[in-house]
Amino acid sequence: MRKLVTFERIRRSDGTSEFDDFLDSLPVKDRAKLEAVILKTELNGLEVAKRMQWVKKLKGDIFELRSKQGSNIQRALYFQFTGTEYVITHGFTKKTDRTPETEINRAIAMMKSYLKGDDR
Asked: Which of 7, 27, 80, 86 makes the best surface tag, with the fewest CB within 10 Å?
């Protein structure tokens, strides 16, 4: 199947990824659900993802991929790099109705660093 959009992860200089570390920390079902949301978004595109509430705009150029497994709520924050290429900054487990401003600010800082060429 052809992907309509693609999601990459920010990589540290040693090749590791904060987002991968987050995924590895999740229970198996929670991880599978978040990975499925990412894949469904890649295959179906952002318009479908918006309608299905898999993605949501947060602030400025920062968006979130949304996943819920039982009472566990995971979010992966991302931004558009070029065209149909998007970059995931990091993920977190959500504990309240609102996305914490600290997580949004963290994504903004990571995006700025990435766009300067610091982490690729």
From this structure: 27
